[in-house]
Amino acid sequence: MASAIATGVPRQNPALRRTITSTTADTDVSSPSTAMGSPADSPRPSASSTSLSSMSSLESSSAAHGKLIDTYGNEFEIPDYTIKDIRDAIPKRCFERSAAKGLFYVFRDIAQLATTFYLFHTYLTPENVPYTPARVALWGVYTFLQGLFGTGVWVLAHECGHQSFSTSKVLNDSVGWILHSSLLVPYFSWKISHGKHHKATGHLERDMVFVPKTREEKASRIGKLVHELGELGEETPIVTFLMLVGQQLIGWPNYLMTNVTGHNYHERQSEGRGNGKKNGWFAGVNHFNPSSPLFEAKDAKLIALSDLGLAVTISILVLVGNKFGWGNLFVWYFLPYLWVNHWLVAITFLQHTDPSLPHYKPESWNYVRGAAATIDREFGFIGRQLMHGIIETHVLHHYVSTIPFYNADEASEAIKKVMGRHYRSDTRDGSVGFIKAMWRSARMCQWVEPSEGAKGEGKGVLFFRNANGLGTKPMKMTPASKGMMIGADE
Question: Which end of the chain is more exposed for a tag (fewer CB within 10 A), N or C?
Fold first, then answer.
């Protein structure tokens, strides 16, 4: 299991320290396609892992950007290396993709699904297990296991979408389309929007997943003035719990159908197809309509092909339900499907939501900074073996997404030497820590705002704040402050 070693970043609130920035911490890596746009003007590296140079770097950063403070109370330093530095640090062998290896894992995961179904369907019968509560409990175990194996299949299709599955685009997209369609995922539609997420990670106006509300947006949503957010009482734990339940149950289909958690600046779509369209039900923004502003006109055939894949899967499910009973199909397929959705949303939420992570306004964002605004976590055997390291190796994945998952550990170790204190991971407590992080992030990460001591470009670097009295307190504002009058949404 990975260990986490903290660097010499000052900690203002030790009781809340959870995120570790380290040059030596053990973690893995997956990587986002560097073809997705790396800014040529990314700053050159100057930080070193030594304490003196680190302090010097912090001082120079503070002078240029002011004092940037994350939600834990740690001083934040803007990344200062280039994408070339990252790529040059990775051994060439890590970039090698193997269709044979990729297909092996596909067959392995399918075999796990098939074997589990055969064993439970054959032996978990009223004759063998006459006690109904025991039988129900064991079928519950079945749905959990199939959810884990199904998530592994989802991750392999994700590899195909990033072209890290093999060197053949035709093979990648064929396998990805089949695998994702079987899980009711519109493969090409998701691939396109996901690619845009990688090109704009951490960008408050262009990112495609888990874009946080700014302080102004949060105030508007709940019908408060901006300054009043810092005066709100604590959100009751039951409200946080219900929010998490809803997110984990319907978050993924809701995202596909309404673009919830994605950016809402569709009027900027270059072809004008986003005019008058907003995120939400029946508002014209979804992953199924070829005219959605998430896509360009050239993508129409691919969106239709994605929809065709879903239609084939739904047709097969209807045939199975009619022949073997919808109750059986609910247990065999739909409950595991909900588990897959749960894991997918949990993984993505925790990759991009943490009290240590920044988000950037357009004027302060670049590709290198955005890719560093992600975090690696640890989920033990399940994460590394069944889910192919997608939890443990996400930071690398946002720098070089074409590296296959089985080479991600080595590549991740390599880039840590370049990233230094900018690399983030939270690996303590392993799998239990991963689950705990969901609650912690839900309680601590309610909106983003600039640090009180930010100046210049630093005002465009925003951090999570909350009304629950956890971590760094929200900035104090007065009713007389400019731009404070934010009314409730109609």
Answer: C
The span from the CA of 121 to the CA of 460, in Å, is 56
Instruction: Name the burial class of residue 391, with classes exposed (0-12), middle (13-18) and buried (19+) by CB atoms within 10 angstroms of its CB.
Output: buried
pTM: 0.85
How far apart CA 126 and CA 130 sit, in angstroms, is: 5
